[in-house]
Every structure is written in C-alpha cells, then in structure tokens.
Amino acid sequence: MPTPQRGILPVASTHAIFLTLRRRLGRRGDPALRSLLGQIPERIETLAAGNKEAGISAVLAIGSDCWAEIFESGRPALLRPFPRIAGAIHPAPATDGDLLLHIRGERYDLIFEFADHLAVQLGDWFEVVESVNGFRYRDKRDLTGFVDGTENPEGDEDRTAAAVVGEEDAEWAGGSYLHVQRYVHRLEQWTKLPVKQQEAIMGRTKAHNEEMDDEHKPRTAHIARVVIEENGEELEMLRHSLPYGSPAGDRGLYFASYARTPDIFEKMLTRMVAPTFDGRVDHMLNYTRAVSGVAFFAPSREKLASLAG
Ligand code: HEM
C-alpha cells in the first residue's frame, strides 16, 4: 500500500503553516516544476530526521484545475473543486488555490523556513494567495474556548480508514482529499453569550468538553449538524484545524480536513450551511463566517516523489 504523506496521520502539532498558492497567469507546469514538487517528500524527511524533537511533518496537495499540469496522466477519481452548495444561507465561498502546503511541528522557526523557501522556489510558477499561521491554543481549544478535535478517529488504523484512499481508487491509493476553509470569528459577540448558550450552540460543555445528551442538544448545535450516520456508521474525517489570528486583525479557525472521499466534507458542510435536510442550519455560523474554501488532493508520498523523475 502506498504511504500517505507524512503530515496526514500524526496527532495535532503546536504550530502549522497553511500556505495557499495559485498559478501565475500564463505560466504552465513544466519538468522543472515537477522535479521541484517531487523532491518535497525527501526534503521533509531530511528536515524531520535532522530535528527529531521538532516532530516536523508536511503535506503538499494539488487542486482540481491545476492537476493535469502536474500529473500528466491519470487523476484521482473524485477530485473536484470546492462545492457550491445549493440553498446555502450562510456563506461558504469557493476561493482561489492550486497548491496547498500544510506544514506542522513543534518548532515554528523550522516550518517557517521551509514554507518561505518553498514559496520562493515556486515563485516562477505560483504566487502566494495566503499564508496562515495556526497555533495550539491552551488545551487544544478553538478561540471560542471549546476543545476542538476530540472526536477525531484515533490510532493509525482508524485514522487511515477515515483519511486515506484505498483500493476503491487503486492508482491513487495512499492519497487523501483535503478541504480548507478560513473562518473569521465574531469573538466580541461570542464572548457576550452566556456559557449555557455557547454550549447549546456547540453541543458540548465548555469547561469539561463533554457531549450534551440528545435530549438537551439542539438540532442546530454544531455537532448535531456534522454527525451524520449512514448505514449505521458515522461518517468520519480527520480534522487538523487550528486557531490563527492577531489582536490587530482577523481571528478564528483555519479548518482543515482529510478524508477518503470529498463526499464527507461536502455532506457535513451542506448540513451546516443549507436548510435542505431538516430545515435547520448550524447556529455556530451566527458567530463565525468562512472567508475562503478550497479543495485539494494530496497524492501518496510515492506518487508525489515520482514527479522528480
Ligand atoms: C466537532 C468547532 C467547522 C466537522 C467540533 C467540535 C468543536 C468544533 C468545538 C467538538 C469537539 C470535537 O470533536 O472536535 C468547529 C469550529 C468550526 C468548525 C469552531 C469553524 C469555525 C467544521 C466544519 C466541519 C466540521 C466546516 C465539516 C464540514 C466537525 C466534525 C466534528 C466536529 C466531524 C466531530 C463531531 C463528533 O463526532 O462529535 N467542531 N468546527 N467542523 N466538527 Fe467542527
């Protein structure tokens, strides 16, 4: 079985950079670009091996529009652009992005240096759309004060089953469908809400991070929207979201999910933003709003390395 890129399965890190790039007008992929991208897995291995305490890992993912310029033959079966959701009453914009570097670890200096060098090296073909620095906040909380990531699948086996393509698309096995969205929180309004109301909006308790029972959890609670059962099984994804921001600017959550199929993110987001399923939407979205949304595929390490020729 091909190996997923190093940044997908490990548990959350303290720091991450999410670097989104888009093709420069008139520039097409060429052998020099493919060679540069193909060297990324090995460069990450070298950086990680030389700084073991830093737990460095990374993922390079490619968007639907630019796929064919990078991989000249073949394409992941379900790779498609970020969804436009019919009936959405909360914004879920689809924005620009052809490549995404998700690099993470315990040392911000090292991940910064890697992302910065790569952005310069890719500069002939790609320009940076945005670079977001995610950080761990307290005990893995979002800036709303709620612990985020609790119900992620645990252990390599379950995380692989949720996040990594298998035999259903044998050529691209070991890859993963990545969705990112930058959310800007309305923290001033949020912090004015009594904790009980915040808990009803999230569906979990704040201090102790316990799930509310079904009797008390409103159908508009965030986790009531995103927990979807099909054929007796809950749909699973692997989230690597992190808070970001500065006191002078936007503050919020950089959402990132890896899944075996893009259907999972699309179904969950639909139940958050559009009242098409049961007439309800996610009330968390009265306090936060997505300002970006891009979909990618992160090929296996072997497939990415094969670009180096
Ligand atoms: C759970 C926050 C966006 C999918 C949670 C939890 C929090 C949270 C606090 C509960 C703890 C946990 O299990 O992680 C947020 C915030 C978001 C956001 C602040 C954006 C501002 C999204 C989006 C999706 C999503 C866009 C998918 C489209 C999930 C899933 C769970 C979850 C699958 C686990 C539910 C369970 O199994 O109980 N989120 N989330 N979240 N969220 Fe979000």
Q: How is the main sheet built?
A: 10 strands, antiparallel
Average pLDDT confidence is 97
**Helical proportion, percent range:** 25-40%
List unreliable stretches of 5+ residues: none
The CATH class is Alpha Beta
Shape: globular
- According to CATH, what is the topology? Alpha-Beta Plaits
Beta-strand share of residues: 15-25%
Hetero groups in this structure are: protoporphyrin IX containing FE
Give me the number of helical elements: 10
Q: Report the radius of gyration as a whole number of Å.
A: 19 Å
Q: Quickly give the structural class.
A: alpha+beta
Number of domains: 1
| CATH architecture term | 2-Layer Sandwich
- Cα(first) to Cα(last) distance is 21 Å
DSSP, total strands: 12
User: What string gives the helices and strands in order?
Assistant: EHHEHEHEHEHHHEEEEEHEEH
Description:
The structure is a single chain. This protein has one domain: Alpha-Beta Plaits, CATH 3.30.70. It is built from 10 helices and 12 strands. The chain has helices spanning 31-38, 40-50, 67-70, 108-121, 155-163, 187-192, 195-202, 222-226, 262-273, 301-306; strands spanning 15-23, 57-63, 99-105, 126-135, 176-185, 229-230, 233-234, 238-239, 242-245, 251-259, 288-290, 294-298. The strands form 2 sheets. Strands 1, 2, 3, 4, 5, 8, 9, 10, 11 and 12 form a 10-stranded antiparallel β-sheet that branches. The two termini are 21 Å apart. The structure holds protoporphyrin IX containing FE. Protoporphyrin IX containing FE is lined by residues 142, 144, 146-151, 181, 183, 202, 204, 222-223, 226-227, 237, 253, 255, 265, 268-269, 288.
